[in-house]
Amino acid sequence: MSDMILARVSQSLATEQSVESLVRQLLEMLEVVTEMESTYLTKVDLDARLQHILYARNSKQMQIPEGLSVPWDETLCKRAIDENCLYSDNVPARWPECTAARALEITTFLSTPVHLPDGTFYGTLCATSRHQQALSQRGEQVLHLFAGLIAQSIQKESLVAQLREANAALIAHSYTDALTGLPNRRAIFENVETLFSLAHHLRQKVVVAYIDLDDFKLINDRFGHEVGDQFLIQIGQRLLSVCGDNDILGRLGGDEFLVVSLSPESESDRCDRLQQVRNQLQQQICGDYQLGDIHLFYPGASLGVVEIDPLETDVNCALHLADSAMYKDKKRQGKTPFVVH
């Protein structure tokens, strides 16, 4: 029997699996070794003073319900740990005040604390029976062995989850402009590729708007980079307010932003559509800005707005065309400088 149990344990540990899958296999083996009616793993929330039964195996009439939460201070496990009595074959006499044990008709109780490798108290591994059941040395050894294996598995899964969260945060950070919170240049290019693929499939055109903030360097030089940063943040917020869920908005870097969207399927001609986009963006950018103690009126940005057919033009060419259109707009005469109030 011992050789069979060890073989099954070795096989289970050699297989990549979830904590739940491993625990359920170990509970089954623990039941065989101890000859108890129920085996289960609990998690203890010391802050909430609650014990939660995570996984249970019930092979006979005794039913330890999974998902059950009980006050920690009223449990058999708490009493057993406090009294350093992890086994009893006469629970009604040993702990007559324990109503939960009485309700479940627990006569024999075997438990051991589960401590994670870093020393943190996690919960308990238990086996119970309605009948008096002797505890063999082998049963006690297996109980402690399984508690250690479960603790290592839980710790490993926790570390893997933390690593995944950190990796996801790192990826999100690498795709996000730290100042404005908008997608950065890297994210923009990947998202635009996806939008072009969608437009190609739908046989729709794409509108690309390249935005360059005129006189931004003067704002920085005159008022300092903190004011300049606040200005960029507010620009991003204003642009975000006019972008739809399927539009792409991001900061290319410095004082340059990009807005890309599917061209609306309307009867208006191409020039009207582009002018409508231009007016909408300029109306958001133009206006009063409160930047700390500085109040200025910003007259608007240089905009390069083009409509692209993804069947004929790729992403790089589209951005180059929008950039060229922006520079043409910048060279126009009569640009009004910002005004400080």
Automatic annotation (TrEMBL):
Its cofactor is Mg(2+). Its EC number is 2.7.7.65. Gene3D superfamilies: 3.30.450.40, 3.30.70.270. The keyword Calcium does not apply. Residues 204-341 form the GGDEF domain. It catalyses: 2 GTP = 3',3'-c-di-GMP + 2 diphosphate. One of its GO terms (molecular function) is diguanylate cyclase activity. Keywords: GTP-binding, Nucleotide-binding. It comes from the Bacteria. One of its GO terms (biological process) is cell adhesion involved in single-species biofilm formation. GO terms for cellular component: plasma membrane. It holds the Pfam family GGDEF. It is an enzyme of class 2 (transferase). Pathway: Purine metabolism; 3',5'-cyclic di-GMP biosynthesis. InterPro entries: Diguanylate_Cyclase, GAF, GAF-like_dom_sf, GGDEF_dom, Nucleotide_cyclase, Rev_trsase/Diguanyl_cyclase. This is diguanylate cyclase. It comes from Citrobacter arsenatis. The lineage of its organism: Bacteria, Pseudomonadati, Pseudomonadota, Gammaproteobacteria, Enterobacterales.
